[in-house]
Amino acid sequence: MNVVPDTSVVIDGRVSDHVEAGDFAGATIYVPEAVVGELESQANEGRDSGWDGLTELQALADLADDGEIDLEYVGQRPDADEIDDAGEGEIDAIIRDTAAEHGATLFTSDIVQSEVATAKGITVEYVEPIVEETAVETLTIEQFLDETTMSLHLKTGVPPMAKRGELGEMHYEEIRDEPSTEAQLKEWAQEIENSARASPDGFIELSEPGMTIVQFRDMRIAIASPPFADGHEITAVRPIVKTELDDYEFADELRERLTDHQRGVLISGAPGAGKSTFAQAVAEFLADADFAVKTMEKPRDLQVGPNITQYTELGDEMAKTADSLLMVRPDYTIYDEVRKTDDFEVFADMRLAGVGMIGVVHATRAIDSLQRLVGRVELGMIPQVVDTVVYIEEGRVEKVYDVTTEVKVPEGLMEEDLARPVIMIRDFETGQPEYEIYTFNRQVVTVPIGEDSEGGGQDSGVDRIAKQEVEREIRSVAHGHVEVDLKGPNTAVVWVEDDDISQVIGKGGGRISDIENRLGIDIDVRTLSEKPGGASGGTGSGGGGDSGGGQPGQIVTPEVTSRHVIVPMEGHAGETVEVQADGEYLFTATVSRGGEIQVSRGSAIAEELEQAIDRGKTIQVIPS
């Protein structure tokens, strides 16, 4: 009897079982090199199936040595592309061809393989696949959990650690003196995976070489192994608080706001502050209020009722999930973990399509979550995308913002012709404005007003922006040192070198008048020699080697093209930054979605930047 086993029965150990049971006694077992290659690939990726299969091949070799069977390895070893396409049937096709070539019986527990081989006239022996009924009611790792444990951290060679305490007052602490061993970690990981597969309360969220994420009851469990991690590690996270919207401040007002019409809401806060717990409470409230509610999560770990369907990435893209959701027509979608540019774009697209959107965002201040939209969404569209910001701190609603657009003169500016669209961020409780976001001289600025303007000092809020813009304008025509002092909301004194004063003022005061009209600020131009105490070497917002207050910056190498000077800022999309040359302020800009700043050649800013490059100055970018 000739037998060709496929990968499925080799992994299950069924070939040696049949030999020992006498079913294949004296048979010639032809093992395709395609099976060996697939098993080796799986073992190299750290997958148990690969190791199980290699163990079975060794068992067949031992049976051959004992004379129970004849064992031969046949065929060509598959190339990398064929192994990568195993899921598309490439390896299965090679195995069927091997069986046909040797006139052998194809032995398989793969029903698709069996049906295809039968259709091709190949003799097939099919056995039911082994289903491991290893689900357990209680995982072994649950011995480390108590009612105050939010997360459990297990790693080879390290004593078990846990985050325990009340929401907002968590402590990372050692919970056992004895370090975990590699054997323990592997045993616990296998138990977790098997239980997730066998239990209706669990599923495998992600399975990649070196990382598996499991959802089992209310626990999200991440299992890491080499080479992805430097050691075997298990991290289990679970909610320790189940809340309702009534448990939070502003519950009545938020209920009315959410049910009035579909909203765009960002729930923000630091890690562990209780953002997801609040999002769950909002989701449950909306579902009970007769809204169709879905979620978008990767991984799925929100603890919501069965009437709320939880979606994850479709084809590794949340954009495809969004397309599918639009067909389902939810009233509200909870988007857990809006972090990357793609996430914000998907959030914005769904909101502008009329779906109520509630996004969970990491931010250390309430305003920071809204600023993350700048550069990712057209400025004028932000209030249509997000009209409410809820900031969570230590499990409570610390701040709620109402976001609207008004056409007005920004706070601190005076000229009527400076009116423009301004995004107003108001305290939801008092109605008092706390921030304004608008474009100032082609740059997007976020200006605190009222009590949040850091005391109204000269170096805060709109004063700081105004000082930078005045200095930028003057430096575009002056060649020497420039300093700026703001004397009021619409008045400034500019100090320049003696040789530059006529150039700055211009014929008949024409040049300085143009600058005043552009900025809406009255400017008094004086020489540095007139300044009490003499030149200070750069007390203005950017004129001097100490500009930036010692903040850490990034040294960059701009690229000069035929039309632009391009400053590379990969990884900083949407951030507002200052560009300096040898510590001297040049201009403020917002990094584009493509991770760069483009300055049109021929502009005053570009000429200044090109001069600095030509003179070999160090170009540095500092967070604004």
Automatic annotation (TrEMBL):
Annotated region (Disordered), positions in chain: 526-556
CDD domains reported for this sequence: PIN_VapC_VirB11L-ATPase-like
Keyword annotations: RNA-binding
InterPro entries with a match to the protein in the record: AAA+_ATPase (IPR003593), KH_sf_prok-type (IPR009019), Nucleic_acid_metab_PIN/TRAM (IPR052041), P-loop_NTPase (IPR027417), PIN-like_dom_sf (IPR029060), PIN_dom (IPR002716), T2SS/T4SS_dom (IPR001482)
GO molecular function annotations of the record: RNA binding
Keyword Signal attached: no
Biased composition (Gly residues): 534-552
Domain PIN: 1-115
Ranges of residues in domain AAA+ ATPase: 261-396
Alphabetized Pfam families for the sequence: PIN (PF01850), T2SSE (PF00437)
Similarity comment: family membership: In the N-terminal section; belongs to the PINc/VapC protein family.
Record protein name field: ATPase, PilT family
Organism placement in taxonomy: Archaea, Methanobacteriati, Methanobacteriota, Stenosarchaea group, Halobacteria
